[in-house]
Amino acid sequence: xxxxxxxxxxxxxxxxxxxxxxxxxxxxxxxxxxxxxxxxxxxxxxxxxxxxxxxxxxxxxxxxxxxxxxxxxxxxxxxxxxxxxxxxxxxxxxxxxxxxxxxxxxxxxxxxxxxxxxxxxxxxxxxxxxxxxxxxxxxxxxxxxxxxxxxxxxxxxxxxxxxxxxxxxxxxxxxxxxxxxxxxxxxxxxxxxxxxxxxxxxxxxxxxxxxxxxxxxxxxxxxxxxxxxxxxxxxxxxxxxxxxxxxxxxxxxxxxxxxxxxxxxxxxxxxxxxxxxxxxxxxxxxxxxxxxxxxxxxxxxxxxxxxxxxx
Length: 311
Description:
Blueprint: H1 18-21, H2 27-35, H3 38-48, H4 54-61, H5 65-77, E1 81-87, E2 92-97, H6 99-102, H7 105-119, H8 134-140, E3 152-154, E4 159-160, E5 168-173, H9 198-207, H10 209-214, E6 217-223, H11 227-237, E7 242-245, H12 250-255, E8 259-262, E9 265-268, E10 271-276, E11 281-285, H13 291-305
Parallel strand pairs: 5-6, 6-7
Antiparallel strand pairs: 1-2, 3-4, 3-7, 5-10, 8-9, 10-11
Helix pairs in contact: 9-13
């Protein structure tokens, strides 16, 4: 009797061991020996997203406790994860990525990008998606989720939290913005749907910056561009708020934000997050078809959620 792959009980699925690969010189084969099991990559995905404790991981994945224990132990042994105690009595540990584990973040993003484009999509290269797409549903489902602690590099070269010490943080993610001259936009950039409008969006946030400040909101722009590229654009546009580089894809992976690949670089698709002072995402804008209009939409979202302060 034959069975459909993936329908057999979990404990009957046998992960390939590196000794079975018989390809000691192939780094792809040896990497798959560590992360080739599908539970392993899903586990790393959730740890990147800020879920670090055993019970939370077990509930989220729906995996057996034995399977999860085995995977965690293997990843700690291989140096992908490290254990950090958070309770002495009884002893309890959190699991965090090591430098080796952080090296898998681009792998997760590449898989997500490929899956969104070729499995869930029709193969079209695009910097946006439809309002009822799986990507849009994933972004809207972020409402109510706490943004995990992370540090991005500002255009000034400083490490900064994208969530500001303010009542509201407005984080607008954009594919890429460049000043005239210099290395400029990648070839074919304007032909990718959803890429154009980054400069207009940034300038509109600049021109309405006081309206955000008056509402107790601080604006941050986030792109996967290098900090020096963001610095050049920020100087050209005279932006009063910080641009942050997610070139290591930390924010993108933590929230599973939609991305696309252009000129060999993973790019964030255009979207906006409104985050409160407790790091909870209160509203999202995606897809954005009107970059300038989305600034007004962000202001309206803050107004709709604002609670009058006591007299």
